[in-house]
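Milestone 3.1: sequence recovery, worked example.
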């Protein structure tokens, strides 16, 4: 019986074994294909990084070689520096370095990109590079030489020893902190050298990733956690503070110091109410009350009116709605400061309103709080009619006003703001009210334009 059963089962077992073997082989081949593809992408990104850093060093040298009075040559050189730095940053993001301390090098490249961009868009005929900026450019040339040499050394080891980036990824992901890997050691050396560089003068208007909040403009004294609790209770309309949890943030850095307040929502941590206050003065910069909004019983105009009233009742005065959006039955309305009939875009607040009950469920006021300062709003040197000449004759202008915006150099400038339609698109254009030059163009999404039109009815 067993012999007969084995004769019958043997072909099935053999087929199952062959099938499992084939499946395992195909899975192994597919896995190898994926690993080879990932390795090739890593190798390409690394060699591109080496090439772009090398070219960056050359371009910095070429820029310094021409006379600073040669505005076209300097502009071309700085544009190339910005382009190559941005490409190097892109190459780094494609490498498995997330677990490797490489932030100093990334910050250095980001600041270099911002510095070169700011210099390239500036009118050097009126504002040529000063002595400090030339010193910074020279220091960047010297530092890029060292970085190029270190990355070339790593590249030489990768090529001569057939090193794999997949080994780097596995080494970084392992819990063993001792990494004996030439690539890891090489990039660690680069980051240490960059961290040892003297602090460079990136300029007062640098769009740096290290830019900080300006606490000097905040009014009031430093608050304590116990002083923040009553402010949060008053804002939320609560009678007690016993359920609140307050965490102090920022350590010893004044520009980052704040308090985070959490109030239990009663139905799990996902419903907790969250508020953030500045340590100096105790100004509310963030509020969120998460909840599901099942239906929209009110429109955007009603939401705008409620949000405007809400802001006026608190410390956010003289605000005007400048942008509307709606998502999952929640209105998101952006307000900007209004001063002497001028819209101050750098000082704005985002307000979320639930369209089922018109309850304000969120505020983001960081730009408003830290953007407060005394502004000298003079009269525009160029009239609106003159500024219109910079627009396309095919643009149908629907509104015009004065506004303060931040330009590419992170400087506040007074502009004529025009909103118009062309080619079935809606545009918002800003023309400098002093020079008549174009500062910025924005495309308004159709749904935003429709929301604004409905709110204006």
């Amino acid at each position: 019986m067993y012999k007969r059963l084995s004769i019958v089962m043997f072909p099935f077992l053999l087929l199952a074994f062959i099938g499992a073997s084939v499946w395992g082989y195909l899975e192994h081949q597919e896995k190898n294909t994926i690993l080879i593809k990932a390795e090739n992408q890593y190798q390409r990104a690394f060699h591109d990084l080496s090439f772009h850093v090398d070219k960056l060093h050359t371009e910095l040298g070429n820029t310094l070689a021409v006379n600073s009075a040669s505005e076209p040559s300097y502009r071309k050189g700085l544009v190339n520096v910005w382009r190559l730095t941005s490409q190097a940053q892109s190459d780094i993001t494609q490498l498995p370095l997330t677990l490797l301390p490489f932030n100093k090098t990334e910050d250095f490249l980001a600041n270099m990109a911002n510095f070169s961009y700011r210099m390239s868009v500036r009118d050097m005929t009126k504002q040529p590079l000063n002595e400090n900026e030339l010193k910074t450019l020279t220091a960047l040339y010297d530092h890029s030489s060292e970085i190029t040499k270190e990355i070339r050394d790593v590249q030489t080891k990768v090529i001569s020893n057939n090193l794999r980036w997949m080994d780097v990824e596995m080494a970084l992901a392992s819990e063993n902190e001792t990494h004996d890997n030439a690539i890891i050691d090489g990039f660690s050396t680069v980051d240490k050298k960059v961290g040892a560089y003297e602090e460079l003068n990136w300029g007062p208007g640098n769009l740096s990733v290290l830019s900080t909040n300006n606490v000097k403009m905040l009014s009031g004294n430093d608050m304590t956690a116990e002083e923040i609790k009553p402010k949060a209770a008053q804002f939320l309309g609560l009678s007690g503070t016993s359920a609140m949890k307050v965490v102090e943030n920022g350590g010893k850095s004044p520009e980052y110091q704040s308090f985070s307040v959490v109030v239990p929502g009663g139905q799990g941590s996902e419903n907790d109410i969250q508020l953030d206050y500045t340590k100096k003065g105790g100004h509310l910069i963030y509020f969120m009350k998460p909840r599901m909004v099942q239906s929209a019983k009110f429109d955007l105009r009603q939401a705008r009116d409620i949000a405007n009233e809400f802001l006026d009742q608190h410390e956010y005065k003289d605000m005007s709605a400048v942008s509307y959006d709606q998502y999952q039955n929640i209105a998101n309305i952006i307000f900007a400061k209004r001063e002497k009939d001028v819209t101050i875009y750098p000082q704005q607040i985002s307000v979320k309103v639930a369209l089922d009950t018109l309850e304000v469920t969120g505020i983001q006021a960081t730009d408003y709080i830290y953007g407060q300062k005394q502004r000298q709003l003079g009269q525009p040197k160029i009239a609106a009619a003159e500024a219109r000449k910079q627009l396309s004759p095919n643009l149908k202008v629907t509104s015009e006003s004065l506004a303060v915006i931040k330009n590419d150099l992170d400087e506040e400038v007074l502009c004529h703001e025009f909103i118009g339609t062309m080619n079935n698109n809606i545009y918002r254009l800003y023309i400098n009210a002093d020079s008549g030059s174009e500062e910025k163009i924005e495309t308004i999404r159709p749904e935003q334009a429709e929301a604004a039109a409905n709110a204006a009815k």
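The domain at 384-456 is CATH 3.10.450 (Nuclear Transport Factor 2; Chain: A,). The CA atoms of residues 197 and 374 lie 37 Å apart.
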